[in-house]
């Protein structure tokens, strides 16, 4: 009888162990299946919001091409300049700000080499812009010369205030000078003399285009960025930032129809504007930056896309995913 009870107890324990193993296997399988379903659902959502992001880019492209088709002049009363464009989509929204990158100072213009012993025009203008933005005098020379060294294609320090590889290799995070055009204006933060505070203060007046050409659309420079326009004109003309703020405030709603009309304004009509400065003025644009975001089911994607418009066709030159700060306000900040 005792032996029978022991065998029954062993059998019960065995059954319980088998049951426990089966429950564990079932729970593991259920957990893995649930995780797989959630992973698949997440991938589907991510794929959908990615394509919503691509739709934001295509929408920006369509708007630009439509505005170029309707007008030979680019100004702030056109659809592309509407701030915070929002379009509803299935279970979400897409939002975008388009910024004319011919309304900011192209930092890559400093890559143009100087002729003879004359200071390059772009370098003079950049120093004037930094002064207008109230950057300390010593820092102005350091930043300007170091930026030129960063962009040129050699390892030679052109002026005592400049910097090349030897300076950057000695930093806490060693790196080299690019010796090439900047891809994004944030690259300026790596240049000697550009502190975080200075960068935050000046970056909204600057941009980095894939060209060394400096061209400013007088129809799209906003009044609070009048320093950009002011910096183009020689100091000996006696013009002030306030003069250009007033000029932009009185700008026609649809902008000036030509550079000649702009130069015939009361402020400039009696001034002798150098030809090299006149060649930097325009009433149209070719580079635009889209700051876009897409939201779907509590998921958000932010992106930046640089367009180049030629023959009324907008082509994506550069695309990158962006941060939260680029989703809101950067369209206005620029």
UniProtKB/TrEMBL annotation:
First-listed, main subcellular location of the protein, grouped into a coarse class: membrane
T2SS protein K second SAM-like domain sequence ranges: 216-283
Segments traversing the membrane: none
Residue span, T2SS protein K first SAM-like domain: 103-211
Subcellular location: Cell inner membrane
Key words, A-Z: Cell inner membrane, Cell membrane, Membrane, Protein transport, Transmembrane, Transmembrane helix, Transport
Keyword set includes Protein transport: yes
SUPFAM superfamilies: GspK insert domain-like (SSF158544), Pili subunits (SSF54523)
InterPro entries named among the record's database cross-references: GspK (IPR005628), GspK_central_sf (IPR038072), Pilin-like (IPR045584), T2SSK_SAM-like_1st (IPR049031), T2SSK_SAM-like_2nd (IPR049179)
Record's keyword annotation contains Cell membrane: yes
Family: Belongs to the GSP K family.
Protein name: Type II secretion system protein K
């Amino acid at each position: 009888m005792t032996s029978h009870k022991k065998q029954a107890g062993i059998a019960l324990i065995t059954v319980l162990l088998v049951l426990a193993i089966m429950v564990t296997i079932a729970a593991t399988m259920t957990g893995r299946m649930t995780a797989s379903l959630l992973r698949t659902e997440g991938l589907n959502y991510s794929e959908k919001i990615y394509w919503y992001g691509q739709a934001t880019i295509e929408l920006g492209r369509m708007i630009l091409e439509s505005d170029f088709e309707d007008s030979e002049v680019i100004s702030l009363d056109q659809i592309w300049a509407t701030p915070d464009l929002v379009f509803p989509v299935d279970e979400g929204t897409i939002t975008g700000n388009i910024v004319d990158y011919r309304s900011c100072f192209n930092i890559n213009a400093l890559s143009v080499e100087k002729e003879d012993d004359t200071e390059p025009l772009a370098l003079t203008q950049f120093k004037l812009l930094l002064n207008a933005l109230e950057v300390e005098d010593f820092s102005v020379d350091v930043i300007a010369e170091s930026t030129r060294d960063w962009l040129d294609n050699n390892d030679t320090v052109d002026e005592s205030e400049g910097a090349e590889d030897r300076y950057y290799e000695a930093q806490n995070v060693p790196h080299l000078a690019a010796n090439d055009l900047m891809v994004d204006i944030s690259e300026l933060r790596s240049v000697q003399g550009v502190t975080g505070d200075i960068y935050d203060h000046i970056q909204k007046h600057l941009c980095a285009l894939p060209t060394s050409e400096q061209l400013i659309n007088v129809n799209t420079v906003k009044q609070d960025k009048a320093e950009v326009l002011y910096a183009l004109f020689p100091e000996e003309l006696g013009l002030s930032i306030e003069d250009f703020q007033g000029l932009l405030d009185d700008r026609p709603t649809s902008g000036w129809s030509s550079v000649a009309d702009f130069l015939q304004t009361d402020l400039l009509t009696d001034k002798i504007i150098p030809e090299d400065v006149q060649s930097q003025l325009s009433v149209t644009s070719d580079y635009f930056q889209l700051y876009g975001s897409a939201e779907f089911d509590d998921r958000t994607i932010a992106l930046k896309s640089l367009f180049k418009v030629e023959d009324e066709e907008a082509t994506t030159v550069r695309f990158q995913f962006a941060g939260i700060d680029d989703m809101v306000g950067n369209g206005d900040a620029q």
